[in-house]
Amino acid sequence: MTKLLKACKNCSLITEEDVCQLCGNQTSKEWQGYVIIIDHTRSEIAKRMGINVNGKFALKVR
Ligand SMILES: [Zn+2]
Question: How far does residue 9's CA lie from ligand 1's centre (Å)?
Fold first, then answer.
């Protein structure tokens, strides 16, 4: 069974939870695309998206 993944409306973190464990905001089922940040200190994408943790982040969250 595939778990339903959601993305945080605020920081774009992808999670299975209804509430983001990073910033405590609501998550949404409506998201598209994702990036995996392995080393946020060296990632241009992380810098651009304002991400300062490693993890999986959605590119677009509605
Ligand atoms: Zn969040």
Answer: 7
Classify domain 6-61 at the CATH class level. mainly beta
Residues in Cβ contact with 3 at an 8 Å cutoff, skipping those fewer than 6 apart: 16
In the chain, where the domains are located: 6-61
pTM of the model: 0.86
Classify the phi-psi angles of 33: left when phi > 0, otherwise alpha if psi is within -120 to 50, otherwise beta.
left
The rounded Å distance from CA 46 to ligand 1 centre is 14
Residues of the chain with pLDDT under 50: none
φ and ψ at residue 37, rounded to 5 degrees: -95, 115
